[in-house]
Amino acid sequence: MYYKVLGKNNADAETVVLSSGLGGSGSFWQPQLAMLSEHFRVIIYDQHGTGVSKGTVPAGYRMEDMADELAGLLNELDITRCHLVGHALGGIIGLHLALRYPALLQSLVVINGWAKLDNQTRRCFEVRQNLLLNSGVDAYVQAQPLFLYPGDWLSANDALLQDERQHQVAHFQGMENLLHRLQALMNSDLTQTLGQVIAPTLAFSCKDDLLVPWMRSADLAERLPNGEHTQMLYGGHAMSVTDPETFNPILLEWLQRHSSQKPAAPSHRLPTETTWPKH
């Protein structure tokens, strides 16, 4: 898979791996790279079958396969310990990684994720899937921002969105790849296994997320032995893009708080709830 290593390069630098959502491209994390690179070795990558990571995603593809692919990449890079920050699908990859390779994760951040797919999320995914199948790639890409960003941000960033639309159509991951990845995501159900995740995990939600209701993050934190829930009030599903001024300090505080920590033993404490307003 295509990847980039940024930031600190000293032997004892802690590593932060950034895993994107359904789009799969590491470029999603651009608003976080400068901040994280000051403190960590940072790895971004294009997931298999997306972006520069060309390839065919087979039928029957699973979230476990995505976790194994990331573990294989980290093994190639001789990384035996890291923080994983994942957005939506990327966060679900992180949870599967925590279950399959528990010694690998120093901490985990799951942004707008879930234990089991919410009916609202399923409804949005089915609408997007139908657009792709019945109206084509351009219609799918044109509609995508509606699920990611708040209305006022959409209105103020029309030129940016037009450029993004052209880029995404030109670099589309392919209909079959996207549908197989989407099916893997929709099929994932971690409700019976989250008690085995020992890594400290931040479930990070946004109150105005249309695609993934914020309650799914609260539920996720409650199911995790070492889970916490924090919430921004504004920014939509992609609040790391729309409001990095609020998002970035919260992320950095978590990573620094869990720096050099070993995975804690499972406990039964309730998750911490924190709500962050828009600046």
UniProtKB/TrEMBL annotation:
Segments of this protein annotated with the region Disordered: 258-279
Keyword Metal-binding tagged: no
Enzyme class label: hydrolase
Domain AB hydrolase-1: 15-242
Gene3D superfamilies, per database record: alpha/beta hydrolase
A Pfam match: Abhydrolase_1
InterPro entries documented for this protein: AB_hydrolase, AB_hydrolase_1, AB_hydrolase_fold, Pyrimidine_utilisation_RutD
GO biological process: nitrogen utilization; uracil catabolic process
Assigned keywords, A-Z: Hydrolase
Keyword tRNA-binding belongs to the record: no
EC numbers on record: 3.5.1.-
Catalytic activity: carbamate + 2 H(+) = NH4(+) + CO2
A molecular function (GO) term: hydrolase activity, acting on carbon-nitrogen (but not peptide) bonds, in linear amides
Known role: Involved in pyrimidine catabolism. May facilitate the hydrolysis of carbamate, a reaction that can also occur spontaneously.
Stated family: Belongs to the AB hydrolase superfamily. Hydrolase RutD family.
PANTHER family tied to this protein: AB HYDROLASE-1 DOMAIN-CONTAINING PROTEIN, HYDROLASE, ALPHA/BETA FOLD FAMILY PROTEIN
Annotated protein name in UniProt: Putative carbamate hydrolase RutD
The encoding gene: rutD
